[in-house]
Design a protein that fits this description.
Blueprint lengths: L17 E13 L5 E9 L4 E6 L5 H8 L5 E5 L2 E4 L11 E5 L4 E13 L3 E4 L10 E10 L5 E7 H14 L5 E12 L4 E6 L5 E4 L4 H10 L17
Parallel strand pairs: 3-6, 10-12
Antiparallel strand pairs: 1-2, 1-4, 2-3, 4-7, 5-6, 7-9, 7-11, 8-9, 9-10, 11-12, 11-13
InterPro entries: NA-bd_OB-fold (IPR012340), RFA1B/D_OB_1st (IPR003871)
Organism: Microthlaspi erraticum
Protein name: Replication protein A 70 kDa DNA-binding subunit B/D first OB fold domain-containing protein
C-alpha cells in the first residue's frame, strides 16, 4: 500500500504522490475563449489545504464533477503538482493539484451486483521485475439507481473471494458495498470503470447497513421518491 503524504509535503518534482483529502469546496469558472473549468479546494487530516483543477481532456470535467463532491473524503493518486499562477495563490499554498486522465480516486460504493464473470489468470501488472508473474482476475458488473451498468475488476485473492462468494450466493438478490475502490476513466472508451486498489479494497454482500437498505428500497422503487445519488458514496 502506498504511503499517504501530507499536503504540506507535496512538490512539483514527483507524480507518484498519494493523498487523503476532503473536498471543502467545488466550483466552476468560465475561461477566456469560452468553456468552463472545474476547481476544488482540498484539505487533509492535518488541516493542510491546496487548490485543485481539472486538466484538459475529453470528458474529464464531467468525470470529476460526478465523483468528487463537497464534504466527501477521497484517496487520490496519479495527479500532477504545479506552482500556482500569480494571482491564484490561496489556501496558504503556492501549489495546485492538476487532476488528469491518469488520476485515480479511491471510493466507497454501493451497487446492485448484476453479474460476475469467470475467474481467469492474467499477467500481474503490479509486479514490475518481470512479466512472468500471474494473478487471478474477475470482471463483474454493478448497476446504479438509474440502471446504468458499471464494469468492475478485482485481482488476486480479492478476485477469488468475490467469485467464490458470488457462486455460493446462488440466485439471491445481491447488493455489494465496496470500500476503497478506484473509479477511473478508460481512456480508450471514455467510460467510467472501477478496479480494486491493490490490497486495501474490500467488499461485502447485502451488508446490514442503513445505506444498503436505503439503496435497496430506491433500486426496487420502494422509497418515498426522494432523490438519491446514482451511486451512494459512503466516504466519511
Amino acid at each position: 500500500m502506498a504511503t499517504i503524504s501530507k499536503i504540506s509535503e507535496l512538490t512539483p518534482h514527483r507524480n507518484d504522490w498519494t493523498i487523503r483529502v476532503m473536498v471543502l469546496k467545488k466550483w466552476s469558472e468560465m475561461v477566456d475563449g469560452g468553456g468552463d473549468i472545474l476547481r476544488f479546494l482540498l484539505v487533509d487530516d492535518y488541516g493542510g489545504k491546496i487548490p485543485a483543477i481539472v486538466g484538459p481532456g475529453t470528458n474529464l470535467y464531467a468525470h470529476f464533477d460526478d465523483v468528487m463532491h463537497e464534504n466527501k473524503w477521497k484517496i487520490i493518486t496519479g495527479f500532477n503538482v504545479e506552482f500556482s499562477p500569480p494571482g491564484f495563490r490561496f489556501a496558504v499554498n503556492e501549489q495546485t493539484i492538476i487532476l488528469t486522465g491518469e488520476t485515480d480516486l479511491h471510493n466507497d460504493l454501493i451497487g446492485y451486483l448484476e453479474n460476475v464473470g469467470e475467474l481467469t489468470v492474467v499477467t500481474d501488472q503490479s509486479f514490475t521485475l518481470s512479466n512472468d508473474k500471474k494473478t487471478n482476475r474477475v470482471t463483474f458488473t454493478i448497476k446504479d439507481l438509474e440502471e446504468e451498468v458499471l464494469e468492475c475488476k478485482a485481482y488476486g485473492a480479492l478476485a477469488f473471494q468475490l467469485y467464490d462468494k458470488w457462486w455460493k450466493h446462488g440466485t439471491t438478490e445481491t447488493f455489494i458495498t465496496m470500500s476503497d475502490w478506484v473509479v477511473y476513466m478508460d481512456r480508450r472508451t471514455n467510460e467510467i470503470k472501477i478496479k480494486d486498489a491493490g490490497g486495501i479494497s474490500r467488499f461485502e454482500f447485502n451488508a446490514p447497513y442503513q445505506d444498503v437498505y436505503d439503496f435497496s428500497s430506491a433500486y426496487f422503487h420502494d422509497s418515498d421518491g426522494s432523490s438519491v445519488e446514482i451511486i451512494e458514496n459512503l466516504s466519511p
